[in-house]
Amino acid sequence: MNSASSVLHLNENCVIKFPAAADSLDQDEEWCIVVQNGKEKRIRFHDYDEVYKVPKLYEHLFYEKLKCNSPRIICGLLQNELDAARQSPEALNVLEIGAGNGMVGEQLKRMGVSSIVGLDIIPEAKAALRRDRPNIYDDYFVADLTQLPPQTEEKLELEPFNCLVTVAALGFGDIPPAAFSKAYNLISSPGWLAFNIKERFLTEKDPTGFCLLIREMKEQGIIQLKTVERFRHRYALGGAPLYYNGVIAKKVDEIPKELLEKVENAPS
């Protein structure tokens, strides 16, 4: 990636400017200046509500400038495991959480997945989806998985989900372990699980609880790991590669309340 490029022309009315000292920014601190019709606005990359308001900004930032690989990689790993199990993507009924504006859903649809339901916590994601990719999902919910409205929870529980997918949404507070666990328990057993997460959130120093949750799920036989692969998720704004782990697993059993309480009460 050419980290020296400090200006991006999104269209004739929109210019994106990037900070000169990008090397010093952590992944969740990265930002840019969006200039539209002469008005400037600073937007942090992880403030997705603001990013989605600008048409195609998400795609230009993460996929064109920072070369994000994750939707392609995770869907490819899932396809490999489906092939090994002699199962067609058409047999999947996917719940995708942190679905955003449909980049991953679009990849799943290309695979031949028959049914995809998306969920995200911010309404701007659904608005961007309707604007940019209106025909990807069978249904799409805006909700907090830790505080689901009864009507939404009832609808989700009636869906025949057998696969949970979440890409580039774990570990930075967007989807905490409690939300992930709620979604996981909405899919059937046996079922498929496909996600990625930044390397540091699967180490003993992880403050989010995901390291403990995934380890306990494996040790207690709640999941059967099929693939764990390190790959370049994208480049940082300063040019350094950012590595994530892609995980494909089979759901064997539910996450019990006791495990989630253990994760939530663990010292950070």
The Cα radius of gyration reads 19 Å
Ends distance: 35 Å
Give the helix proportion (percent range). 25-40%
Mean pLDDT value: 90
User: Class of the largest domain, according to the CATH hierarchy?
Assistant: Alpha Beta
The coarse overall form would be globular
CATH topology of the largest domain: Rossmann fold
> What does the main sheet amount to?
7 strands, mixed
Q: Give the SSE string.
A: EEEEHHHEHEHEHEHEHEEH
Q: Beta fraction of the residues? A: 25-35%
**Count of individual beta strands:** 11
Quickly give the CATH architecture of the largest domain.
3-Layer(aba) Sandwich
Poorly predicted regions are none
Count of domain modules: 2
What class, by secondary structure content?
Answer: alpha/beta
CATH superfamily of the largest domain: Vaccinia Virus protein VP39
Biggest sheet strand line-up = 7-6-5-8-9-11-10
- Helix segment tally: 9
Short description:
By secondary structure, the protein is an alpha/beta fold. The protein folds into two domains: 7-65, no CATH class; 70-265, Rossmann fold.
Question: Your description of this structure?
Answer:
- There is one protein chain.
- The chain has two domains: 7-65, no CATH class; 70-265, Vaccinia Virus protein VP39 (Rossmann fold, 3-Layer(aba) Sandwich).
- The protein is 32% helix and 27% strand.
- The chain contains nine helices and eleven strands.
- Strand 5 (93-97), helix 4 (103-111) and strand 6 form a beta-alpha-beta unit.
- 38% of the residues are buried.
